[in-house]
């Protein structure tokens, strides 16, 4: 029978009244500290009408979710205020782990991940030469101008293809000459990068021909030398003793090539197409002269694979057309960002993994601290569970505390990262590109927030699960003490073992790099860099053709040798930093086509070079002033050259013909007059390569360093040398004024950077591990105080009690060391390329790390162990 309308209306009013009371009752419980879930469960018990309670609370969930979160945060803050020591340690640990990760990621983001500062930079591709005899994995090499011109005219996959090489310029403005780093570029260089001048214009195609003396300058050069004058465009200024017209000014911040120091001046290919002396051949027509870099912008529809296939076909065609120069030469395409990262990728990734391990150890430490603290909160949690709170609710509450700590630690960590970024940049090697772009930006903030959130989950999940379950068990005995169960203790032990094992991996890696770096810095470079001053200058070919440059160097060397305090002087490329050419050569009696000839490092040096650097001559003689342009052609080879190419024959008197013509149209045969000791020419961690030297008077093709061995103060020598140079030509500017030992130090900067940072992270990990082990042992001692008291009361000696505590600590340490050593055996192989003359499984390093960890574990455990021996037996028995 259908109920009357008035009765249905009455029922609805009654339900609304009951619902109103329900809302008020539930809201009142929530206001008193209960969760919505707990208040709902109580309302079901009191009212019995489950359907009505569900309907009421369904509407309340929306507005109470945020209130519940706010309530959890307030409760977490109150709880942490009651434990300021725990909060301070947790925040500091979070800040340390997250801060170093944020700082390291900011460097990796700027160097490896952030796109180049050009439009659609993902389409920029480096085009380089390779030796097909060694496959596509062979080292990349530079390109010649003729090859570039052919590539540019034949390619269809590239929207634009341009070339460049770095060059030092001397700019004269207002009668003052200054050294200006710059580059020679093809006309479409700026268009390829997608950047146009802020003022004026870029280069035109016809300005690649000889005689087109135009230049584009940087914003900083425009401001420093021209006072940011708007009429700077169109001015004629002197560059390398020639009048150049400035046609454009680049925008502020534009920097390419990404070299140190940055290019400030760009001129066209006309610089290399010029002929300074009759009969010379411009370098833009020499197909065998490989010294330029090529960069291209792919068409929108083209892929790197399609462009690679096209360039392979072009290279094969050129090999058929020019077999003497292009046979066995291929082309390799690499995204420009990937090329710039180059060999720095692996060290940076290793460092990122290392800081990740530091953060992992920090999280394990925090998890252990939270487990210890959770054991002390067993009564509170047990009472909440008994009053109806769900396990999920307890887990959420405990995780909220971890998140609050993580947020505070992340904020402090960002401050630490902002400070440490400057330190990281100063420590970084100079060849690490784009360091000026390192900053805390949106990507770094997002990464830090993600790391902070994951750290909160990682450090809070296990304690929350243990704290919300039956463990820790709360035994309310007569003393009211709370003791942790076995599962709780096993969790803490497992965490500390994991922490020690990660620390072992980091310490082994740091130890290997330390030993490797020690071997590297004690490597004999083959020369004596102490008390040697070096500098450089450029002589404009317009005023100093070949013979005049030689005369200038000869006269300057004679003037410097006459100065007091100078033992030896020479002009030459410097080992480790000088210009290095890999030039093929032909041996007398063993004719080979150019494509099959061996190559060796080629250097032009002056008389006195081997004496100035104290490089011993092991056979024959070194060069003298008599080995000039009119004398018979001579050459000095190193021991590696003689050993590898002369097959045990007496080197003196052998004849060599370099594959590079200098003053003659055809390269002449040269007689070996001396054999010199091997020198680390390219870097300290590369073995000495075969090399041959010729007198610069018989073939000067590059700018040379002036090398001075002196007993006087370096500053006095440099001042005297500057006066000597300026007295000959006041428009010549000196640059790269350094001691040779500075170059040696710079050559090991990348290895030092990785070693120092990884050692720092390993030390942090060791400290955190020691703190974690101390906390676990100290808590174990506190939990077993009555047991130790009873043992002492029954006659146990303090030494036995201490041994009991230390034995447990050593068991944990031993387990962690075993797991860590096994992990290190597999992970340290990733350091293979970064290690110098050290095996990744070096037993001495592994043994040293184990010894250090055992000692640190003993030191961390001995304080709580001594505390255990001082327990008062009488007080312990009274509690029983």
Outline of the structure:
The protein has 880 residues and is of the alpha+beta class. Helix content is 52%, strand content 15%.
Task: Provide key terms for this protein.
6-stranded mixed beta barrel; disordered N terminus; 21 strands; 880 residues; 4 domains; alpha+beta
Give the topology:
Elements: H1 5-31, H2 36-47, H3 50-81, H4 84-113, E1 124-131, H5 145-154, E2 158-173, E3 176-185, H6 189-193, E4 199-200, E5 214-217, H7 219-226, E6 236-239, E7 242-249, E8 265-268, H8 270-273, E9 293-298, H9 304-321, H10 323-326, E10 329-335, H11 336-341, H12 345-376, H13 378-386, H14 391-427, H15 442-467, H16 486-521, E11 532-537, H17 546-561, E12 566-572, E13 581-587, E14 599-605, H18 609-612, E15 617-620, E16 634-638, H19 639-645, E17 655-658, E18 670-676, E19 691-695, E20 705-710, H20 714-728, E21 734-739, H21 740-747, H22 749-783, H23 785-793, H24 798-827, H25 843-869, H26 873-879
Parallel strand pairs: 3-8, 5-7, 14-19, 16-18
Antiparallel strand pairs: 1-9, 1-10, 2-3, 2-6, 2-9, 4-7, 5-8, 6-7, 11-20, 11-21, 12-20, 13-14, 13-17, 15-18, 16-19, 17-18
